[in-house]
Design a protein that fits this description.
Elements: E1 3-6, H1 12-25, H2 37-46, E2 50-56, E3 59-68, E4 77-84, H3 93-107, E5 112-119, H4 123-131, E6 135-146, E7 150-160
Parallel strand pairs: 4-5
Antiparallel strand pairs: 1-2, 2-3, 3-4, 5-7, 6-7
């Protein structure tokens, strides 16, 4: 059984190890791999409109944030970021987080969701987002310096809610 709930201030200590490991790997997020815990907190918790955690009997196994993609005239479109613990991958948690985020986005008044920088090398995420109704609406050539693959493209992905 899994519960997805709003993250509270005390949850960041449970979220941080997942963020740290994903950011340090440097192969999926355009975040400085040496990001400090304080800056990661600002990025994932403070700058977000809302942050959520997925919790099972094993503890926190995933997280996502939702924020306004652009201010002013673009404020009706949100952006999200998702991370699943390595021990919980392959269990459909990312899909559940994305479905939950779409419901929350609607509840918060957003009309669409846009992912600004999905790496072409992140095959699993690209397949999942397509399966969940996102379209690739643009490609940024050689957008990301992947630590193993060199320069890889990034996609802009979009879904009307």
């Amino acid at each position: 059984m899994m519960e997805i709930r709003a993250a509270g201030p005390d949850d960041f200590d449970l979220i941080w190890p997942m963020l740290r490991d994903v950011f340090r790997a440097g192969d999926t997020y355009a975040v400085d791999p040496r990001i400090s815990k304080a800056k990661a907190h600002a990025y994932w918790m403070t700058q977000a409109r809302a942050t959520y955690v997925a919790e099972t009997d094993a503890g926190v196994v995933g997280t996502y944030y939702i924020k306004t993609n652009q201010p002013g005239g673009g404020a009706h479109i949100c952006n999200c970021g998702y991370i699943v613990s390595p021990v919980a991958r392959g269990q459909g948690i990312a899909a559940m987080l994305c479905a939950h985020s779409q419901d929350e986005a609607r509840r918060l008044g957003y009309q669409a969701m846009q992912f600004n920088f999905v790496l072409a090398s992140n095959d699993g995420a690209v397949r999942l987002w397509h399966r969940l109704g996102f379209e690739t609406v643009g490609t940024i050539p050689d957008a990301f310096a992947h630590p193993q693959q060199g320069l890889v493209d990034a996609y802009v992905m979009y879904r009307r809610l």
